[in-house]
Amino acid sequence: QVQLVESGGGLVQAGGSLRLSCAASGRDIRRYAMGWFRQAPGKEREFVASIIWSAGWTYYGDSVKGRFTISRDNAKNTVYLQMNSLKPEDTTVYSCACAQYQRGIAAMTEGDYNYWGQGTQVIVSS
To answer: From the CA atom positions of the chain, what is the Rg in Å?
Structure first.
């Protein structure tokens, strides 16, 4: 079992920045990738970013490329999402996820992941 706890959400003005954190805990944490997704009410879950844990390769959704950066800290079992140049349309709940085994190479779909956090709310005011 893997537990994921997100933090760092909040309210920010458009153009501002936030950094989300996701700490993983549990026995013998095995992971192929960690990712961030977001989901607004009434909409499908959207891929934001993923990082292949061993190699450090990163992938981004089109709507966040050039603005968001995913990174990891092996020692802390933590993945981060640095969000810059935030826009009102970035407002939603952000969830992190853990893919213990490789399915898709880039781990860009929900089906690649088998553990999910509870989510953290991000609100960007205009």
So the answer is: 14
DSSP characters over the chain? --EEEEE--EEEETT--EEEEEEEESTT---SEEEEEEE-TTS--EEEEEEETTT--EEE-TTTTTTEEEEEETTTTEEEEEE-S--GGG-EEEEEEEE-S-SSSS--SGGG-SEE---EEEEEE-
Instruction: Give how far the C-alpha of residue 57 lies from the chain's centroid of Cα atoms, to the nearest Å.
Output: 14
Q: Are 70 and 57 in contact (CB under 8 A)?
A: no
Query: One-letter amino acid identity for 8?
Result: G
Long-range contact pairs involving 102-106 (C-beta distance under 8 Å, separation at least 24):
102/32, 102/33, 106/50, 106/52, 106/57, 106/59
Tokens 């879950």 found at? 45
Q: Is residue 28 predicted with pLDDT exceeding 80? A: no
Closest CA to 68 of 53, 56, 57, 84: 84
**Confidence grade of residue 56 (pLDDT, cut at 50, 70, 90):** very high
